[in-house]
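Thread: quick sanity check before group meeting

JM: Hey all, I'm pulling together slides for Thursday and realized we never actually wrote out the predicted structure for the chain we discussed last week. Dropping the sequence here so it's in one place. If anyone has concerns about the input, flag it before I start.
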Amino acid sequence: MRRLRRLPWQFIFLSLFFFVLFFKLRLVPGGSVSIERAAPTPPRDDVAIPASDFNSYDPTSEPGGVGTVNDFREPRFYSGGTRFLIGSPNTTRYPTPAIFDPYPEYNSKEWSKQWQGTFRPCTGPRGKTLDRTRSEDMMSVYPGTQQGFPRPVFGSQEALGLRSDVCTDRYGRYGPYGFGDNEPEHTGLMKRRNVDWDAVNWGALQSQCYERNAGRYNPAQPDQHYGQHIMSLNSPKPPQPASPPDSLSYKSRSAVILRASEDMKWNPSHQQYMRSLIMELSLHSGSEYQVFFLVDVHNEELDIEHDPEAVQRAMANIPPEFRDMTVLFNTRLMRQWYPRVNEYRAIFQHLQALQVFAQMYPEFDHYWQLEVDGRVMGHTYHFLEQAIEFAKQQPRKHLWERNAYCYAPGAHGTWKEFTQNVAKDLQGKKTVWGPVAVQGIQPQGPSPPVPHPEDDQFEWGVGEEADLITFLPIFNPTQTNWTFPWMLWNLPRDTPRRASPITQWRVSRRLLNAMHQAELDGMAFGSELSAPSWALLHGFKAVHVPHPIYMDGKWSPTELARIFNKGPPENINGEPDSIWNWDLGSIHLWYRMTYMFSTQTAEDLFRRWMGYPVDPILLHQGIRPEYRPGRYWDDGGSVDEPKYGRLCFPPMLLHAIKNPDLPMIPGEAVNTFSLGIESLNWKEWDWMRFPDTPIAPNVAGQQGQ
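JM (edit): ok, ran it. Output follows.
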């Protein structure tokens, strides 16, 4: 047989390849691999498109509706997998997984120059001190991504500094938290010791973790050990600021509130998701985050504030492992806190419970509100910390205007190019600069350092923590046909406001305090108006974070950038043709997104990633035929794990997933009517969209007072 002759250039290329590979993958104890930090790779399709190109659309080219011509399934999401990552779809072996470690080098020389105290590892659910080199304590990823995997349509891993060169499958993501405990060893990952999860007490583990690391945090904000499982009318004394010795900084703490109803239908995926949040955010970080389960008790007859037996009955549906981190509330309690608002339904006042929570637990600087139907495909600490850092580095100049865009890197270019082009488009136009003045409201935020934004060189706000972080754009709804643009109490009808769909937000303590005080005085905005509007009026920093959002379709970035960014640059999506209009004209596009309040793609991709077979009866479980948006949204597609291996997704945030477990829940398929609006009086519904309707609900009588 003729020998292959290696040319010198081939030898040099192979040497460089293995040199890079050696430094990218570092062996650690246990035979796994820890991925070192690497500079983010540039997007493949970030080509800036001149703004004039977005105005050449001919609506007669799509008689079926905007965006329908290219509404076809994108099979590249599921035509790949873990075996394909190593170059051959037919191999019988799995690639070597790697431990994903996004945490700082705690206690290092550089770390100790900045931070007060010492990091001490915490105890995990297996009864041992957590070890970040042990795969049973950490999530795992694979170097590389599925070949041909689509790029995000909106946002990007690069903009946030997320790792775009790795992906994770279901075992690497949720294996440490109980997924696959009873399955044979054929996954390519090391077998983990099973845990008696019912014997785990996550509340106690988090409190112990704080005690070990208390020296890192402000002593004026002590941990309460969270033995109180209910909200009450007796809030503790607010913490006092303290300066650490030697000019070192105390690390701030954040509460993560996972919110659900008492009658929630639990399944293993919910529990694995909650365990991942606690491990990745709280225990591995030494209590930088504290995770709570906030439960809405619908039975107002239960006196959860004074009756221990009522508390036990309300807790009965909650798995034992989470009961000591659970906080209960009900409408009765919200009514006692905010009697002047006279509206307590979650669809209209979703932030009330979070406001009261911040009064009960004031030791945190920020409060994340998350939902049980969301999932982070990637490491949660990495995802949230990168979102926080992105928001921190955004200048305030043109911030409210940028917040309204759906940033499409394939059309807008890199984030830097996008911000520069927005600035050019805003030359000579009026923009938000500091608090927006409203009679009777004293702004609590900072005043601009210069009188006019033209005098600022994009310096004000850089390095400033955001008071509000959202995962969808923040827009002006007053001229749109959005759902609740006129939901305000005891405020003038012309009060400036902003909205951001889906209240999975991070809100600062000072913004929640301002919202709380306003509701005590009877002034309030509707749920998705609340935090954005109060941030606008007080001059607090609010940032829409452009995390990667994918769309299951064949649209070009230019086409989608045009559809999702209508209006003048100073009021994107704030005009009558807004993408947020609730006229169902855009819902076939929303259904194709991986992050939206009403979407089929998030659940579809998650179920395929979990290895579930495509379920044809999905169409008949709660989705009315007249509300099946899209032309081909129900095409089956396929998942071929024997050929490709398991699906392996890059970091992304999915919402909403109503069916995370294999059996489908009747009536729980994601659809237009999954928002609770089916319970509304339709005259009330019309008034919320069109305030001049003759018959209006009680809230109308409170407006303008």
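AS: nice. Residues 603 and 657 are 5 Å apart (CA to CA). The first strand starts at residue 25 and ends at 27.
JM: adding both to the slides.
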